[in-house]
Specification:
heterodimer, A: about 120 residues, mainly beta, 6-stranded mixed β-sheet, about 0% helix, B: about 120 residues, 7-stranded mixed β-sheet, 4-stranded antiparallel β-sheet
């Protein structure tokens, strides 16, 4: 069965600090996809990144970077030099090949960046 | 490109009343989803459509919830009668044609429902 765990319920950092959001997943499939979404106070879920299970290459995009490790079933997300506008709830999600596009979302991590 | 549209944005009703939510997906997106997001939790899938056919409604409480997607474009989600525990944000999402698990879902702003 699919499961996504985000152990950090809430994180507070001061602006310009780096912050890493953790995501651990469970799946029996060898082919699956992982996603990160951001949900600002406005409520709309904003797509950030997608990774497939065959691509463990880590990625950096501006201030964002992702660390995918199949050995530990983790897909962590780091914001470098955080800004107040990064304050939001961040969700990790898993989609398995056998379940079409049925996403399973983690419970989310609320990030507060203080000025 | 216009995003996923939803209305209304907010709705307050009393228990046992009915309510309906509307969603218009991104143009050309054949797959449409309705999610329920209870405060403090991640979204939970209620129903998934591919064009106007239902792909997955296993988590839809069918005794009170119903959804339709006539003509394979707009969709309506209805609750009748509402219960207090239905208070949540109802999110609509869409993705490109096909059921590949890699397809990214794009979300609308959601409808916040409060049942009193």
């Amino acid at each position: 069965a699919q499961k996504v765990t985000q152990a950090q319920t809430e994180i507070s950092v001061v602006e310009k600090e780096d912050v890493t959001l953790d995501c651990v997943y469970e799946t029996r499939d060898t082919t699956y996809y992982l996603f990160w979404y951001k949900q600002p106070p406005s409520g709309e879920l904003v797509f950030l990144i997608r990774r497939n299970s065959f691509d463990e290459q880590n990625e950096i995009s501006g201030r964002y970077s992702w660390n995918f490790q199949k050995s530990t079933s983790s897909f962590n997300f780091t914001i470098t030099a955080s800004q107040v506008v990064d304050s939001a709830v961040y969700f990790c999600a898993l989609s398995e090949a056998d379940y079409g596009q049925n996403f399973v979302f983690g419970p989310g991590t609320r990030l507060s960046v203080l000025p | 490109e216009a995003g996923v549209a939803q209305s209304p944005r907010y709705k307050i009703i009393e228990k046992r009343q009915s309510v309906a939510f509307w969603c218009n997906p991104i143009s050309g997106h054949a797959t449409l989803y309705w999610y329920q997001q209870i405060l403090g939790q991640g979204p939970k899938l209620l129903i998934q459509f591919q064009n106007n056919g239902v792909v997955d409604d296993s988590q839809l409480p069918k005794d009170r919830f119903s959804a339709e997607r006539l003509k394979g474009v707009d969709s309506t989600l209805k609750i009748q009668p509402a219960k207090l525990e239905d208070s949540a944000v109802y999110l609509c999402a869409s993705s490109r044609p096909g059921l590949a698990p890699s397809e990214t879902q794009y979300f609308g702003p959601g409808t916040r429902l409060l049942v009193l």
